[in-house]
Design brief:
310 residues; alpha/beta; 10-stranded mixed sheet; 28% helix
Length: 310
Amino acid sequence: MVEAPLFQRIILGLRPGAIDRDAVEVVAELAWLLGAVLQGIFVEDRAVSGIGALLEAREFQLIGRQWRPIEAERLAEDMQLAELSARRLLDRAAQRLGVASFFEVLHDEPMSSLPSLARPGDILAVVAPRDPHERLAPYYSEPALVPGFSATTIFVPRRIGRKRGPVLALVGTPQDKGLSVAAAVARAAEERLVILGPNDSGLREGILHAAKMVGGHWAKTEFVALVRLDELAFLSAAEGVQERLIVLTRPPDNAHGDMDPFVIASMRQSPIILVGPTAAADALSRPPNAGDQTSRAAVSTREQSKWADP
């Protein structure tokens, strides 16, 4: 866990029929690493809850191979069971790690309403749908990517490849908010920090210095220079890293271009933290605990050159 919390809450939206234990556990662990409270929000989407009120609504029953009316009472019972299951998953994941957690139910609200709950210092966690084609459906929306939304967001892919491994960060300048978050998480998890950054010696030294200010003397940091800071260069340089987490800085106006966080998370099978512009404002200026007995000076680049302490 970080010495001082970088965020106050992680808000995890939970939908009926799309609740995944691995995803909940990943978000709970990130809450523990970041020192944040885990807030589970179970969303009773009005599009689902209103189906039972439609007289013409039917469902196909596999047993008997026939269509039958959708009963509002049974739909309500299924919703209650889904809510209970989500609450248990959240409670168990939080209790296992000792994370403070809360559970709330939003009645007759769409998933797109979740961003309105985020306050400064919060993170919105978004879990990829089981069916990737669901992202193309007209009723589906990704509130974390709409213009004007600037809060820090966690994208969790449907399949998680690794639970251990380095933290991988794409960094453009020493002032990138994502750098402070990535270095803090790497230090808390006692993992390597692999930085993909610009092919500029001045920026490289500044980025490594900024990472050290957060990560401390113990941290192992690798720097990989990129000719371009785009998705293709990122994916090419990331091969072989086997990271547990990817950290990106949210660009202005959500102008991601080809950098689709869900696509990258799915391809890498790693959760992504997309850090907002107002997150962790003081993290880079907060020095690490100088009395940490577990510290070990091992800052290096992939070229195996040592970065000497001043």
